[in-house]
Specification:
This protein is mainly alpha-helical and about 350 residues long. It is built from 11 helices and 2 strands.
Length: about 350
């Protein structure tokens, strides 16, 4: 989360959501053209930042670890909205979109964001500490979720290919919600102290909590911004697909673009926290995003797939499965001691760069 949250709502935090709705009105009235599409793309990214700002204000008001949970859920809502907007009315070539996006979100969060946080924090503070119990709990749930939803479909026999049968898909959705719900309960109620800065760590200077009125305004603007993002994303979907085809980029890269878009603001918040020597907050953001991405996205797209009788591919190819296994194994090693240095950050970033390179050159 940001180091300081302003007591008053900055101008851009309400201007960008307003611009999003203005662009939508222009598109309805004047139709789509190059200028409208370009404006929609710029405003979409700006509105994502505004939405995350409002989530941070609400989060700062309610405190940790609830704060990072609010931010993780907010960006996951954006991710799900983008996936659903593309899936609705899509043909079979979109069957793997949810899988590609969820996998990309896990790789970006666990390698890109974590790696950059460890690198930035290590350069500035040499060595940083965090609560091992919280990280271990998150990794245990992440390992189970990724295996059950992204690996298991490749070895089931009821339906051929990297897909679940309808009963299996329903079961996977229920299990995903159950695991994520259990993690949220542990994080916010039963073992809340596992996700707070370690005892004895020097307290950080925090900005005063925003008043209730400011938090309420941000809560309303958060809903407005998220709705604007959903509608803009739906409007931009045809242009995004044409751009991918024009560049000759693999179809799976659409999922990487979606994940990068929704995780960019949260990634910046995590890096700021690591720079301020608040690595616990950084890990809460990164791992929480990965867990929310799977735990909330999979059940949503599963319900959509069954309701619309659309195919849904969840099983990863061998290359992606190897990268996922390496990521989980490396994360367990990195977060097993409670202390990190720049070396772990460099290793995670190398895996992240490898993921991006292989997404472009499979």
């Amino acid at each position: 989360m940001a180091k300081a949250v302003a007591m008053r709502t900055p101008w851009w935090a309400w201007t960008f959501p307003a611009l999003a709705w203005a662009v939508l009105i222009v598109k309805v009235v004047a139709g789509s053209n190059a200028i409208v599409v370009a404006a929609a793309g710029v405003v979409l990214i700006a509105t994502v930042f505004a939405a995350v700002h409002h989530a941070e204000v609400v989060a700062h008001r309610i405190g940790e670890p609830f704060g990072t949970l609010v931010l993780a859920v907010a960006v996951t809502v954006i991710e799900v909205a983008l996936i659903v907007s593309i899936m609705i009315g899509a043909q079979a070539d979109k069957a793997a979109l949810a899988r590609d996006t969820v996998f990309a979100a896990v790789m970006i969060a666990c390698n890109g964001i974590v790696g950059l946080c460890l690198l930035v924090g290590g350069i500035r503070h040499h060595e940083q500490g965090f609560q091992v119990q919280g990280a271990s709990a998150a990794l245990a749930v992440l390992t189970a979720l990724t295996t059950l939803t992204l690996i298991l479909p490749n070895v089931t026999t009821s339906v051929a290919g990297p897909v679940f049968s309808s009963p299996q898909l329903i079961f996977a959705a229920i299990v995903s919600l159950l695991l994520y719900g259990a993690f949220v309960f542990i994080q916010t109620v039963r073992h809340r102290d596992y996700f707070l800065p370690a005892a004895g760590k020097k307290a950080e200077a925090h900005a005063a909590k925003p008043p209730n009125a400011t938090a309420l305004i941000s809560a309303v603007l958060l809903v407005v911004a998220l709705t604007g993002v959903v509608l803009l994303a739906k409007a931009l979907t045809p242009a995004l697909e044409r751009g991918i085809d024009l560049l000759g980029v693999p179809k799976a890269f659409v999922g990487v673009v979606i994940a990068l878009l929704v995780l960019l603001p949260e990634g910046l918040a995590a890096v700021r926290a690591a720079h301020a020597n608040k690595l616990q907050t950084s890990l809460n953001l990164a791992l929480g995003s990965a867990l929310a991405s799977i735990g909330l996205t999979i059940p949503t797209v599963a319900a959509l797939s069954i309701a619309l009788t659309q195919p849904l591919e969840l099983g990863l190819d061998m290359k992606e499965a190897v990268l996922l296994t390496l990521t989980v194994f490396l994360s367990v090693i990195t977060l097993s001691t409670g202390r990190t240095t720049v070396l772990q950050g460099i290793v995670h970033l190398v895996i992240f760069v490898t993921f991006v390179f292989l997404a472009l050159q499979p």
